[in-house]
Amino acid sequence: MNNPHAELWGGALEKLQREIGAESVDLWLHPVEAFKLENHILTLKVPNKFFLNGIRDGYQKRLEAILKDLAGEPILIDYQISQSLASLPTAADPIPTPTPQSDFASTEFNPRYTFESFVVGDSNRLAHATAEAIAKKPGTQYNPFFLYGGVGLGKTHLLHAIGNHIRRSSPRAGLLYTTAEQFVNDYINAIRLGTTDAFRSKYRSLDCLLIDDIQFLISKEKSEEEFFHTFNALHGARRQVVIASDRSPQDMSQIEKRLLSRLEWGVVADIKSPDLETRIAILRKKADVERFYVPDDVLVYVASSIKNSIRTLEGALIRLKAFTSMTGSALTVDEAKEILKDSVSPEDLGPVRVDTIQRMVAQKYSIDAKDLKGQKRTSSVSMPRQLAMYLACEMTELSLKEIGEFFGGRDHSTVLHARDKIKEKLSDPFFLELVNRLQSDIRTAVETG
Ligand code: ADP
Ligand code: MG
Predict the structure, then answer these.
(1) Is 269 within 8 Å of 146 (Cβ atoms)?
(2) What is the pLDDT of residue 344?
(3) Which of 9, 57, 246, 297 could form a Cys-Cys staple with 34, CB 3.0–4.6 A?
(4) Residue 68, class by beta-carbon neighbours within 10 Å (0-12 exposed, 13-18 middle, 19+ buried)?
(5) Closest ligand by atom to 153 CA
(6) Would the CB of 358 count as within 6 Å of ligand 1?
(7) For ligand 1, what atom is nearest to the CA of residue 159?
């Protein structure tokens, strides 16, 4: 490297890579070129807006600090979208000689599962960025792509989004979305019918294989072996392989080592449970698509009550919509609560005890659980005490009087007052989120004893 700016940039990348690992640096910063350094501003050429946003949100601060260290003076980062790369037609096909295969060309992808309909947040940013990069240039950088995460968090959606995108830009590409289960069935049938040759040539002629729920292969030795060979053939020919799983590679130790190590050759990204903001954004987007008006407080209520699966979130929206189409009026939070009471907060985990609630609330506010029963009236104790009473009202079957007994023999009107006070405060979405978290922690505590 002979340009001072390129050298500086190279040094910064090396340093960042030592801090955060090669994976993220490769994904986000490898496609970037440092292109000039003027007046303490280092201008980076980035392939598109997507990278620009990703780098700015994820790395800029740290990079500027590193640059300052290296250069001995403050250096700011600026961006330019690189025309040549941005305008690169995806039809300049990175896929070697696409094989027109009528049965694959007709593989149907779910038209609703696109990148446009996918809401990006911290929980899925890397997974989404990788998927999008692959869709634009399959078979090049991120191969294989191993995507994992819990149920209902968008893995299948991203697989289809890749398929939809490639189908649009390269209509004749050999694409196949399948589940590992389907793969196994196909294989078993092929053995039964003596058509394993056809089976192999079908899979091995693909340009892009999108295989879902790979965990199904665990302990299916023969099929796993067959998949291993399919994988090798495709990967060796620089065809794209995308694999989704409900668990991480490390948690698939039952899968043969040699297959695992190959899965880890490329990029591994996970999808986590979305945070509150992302859940609200997802609900809002889905409601918009459905042309379904949901008041903000209801959106916040639903998003704060359902945390783990986006599928459940969607299901809730559908139920709410069915309800409003009957009544024709805008929803209220209380109605939403009533409609969703079965899908929200599974109550089948056994009774919640007041002392569990007290213990968890005390822990949350770093106070002594005894103080919740005592007479102290300082705000550091009285608010948590009210919250614990509120939770006892919500989460147990006890009467107000009985609950009062658990709080140092307070009378029922004190409990009632506490409950109303907290209810008022729930209009603050962040407090609501805190309370919901606490409830689910309490339930987990009940569940795990
Ligand atoms: P998984 O395969 O991980 O179990 P899915 O891809 O089937 O989950 O997603 C479940 C539902 O949630 C789908 O309807 C999908 O469209 C939706 N979904 C998941 N993630 C998002 C997201 N980030 N933005 C919008 N919708 C999403
Ligand atoms: Mg799925």
Answers:
(1) yes
(2) 62
(3) 9
(4) middle
(5) 1
(6) no
(7) 6
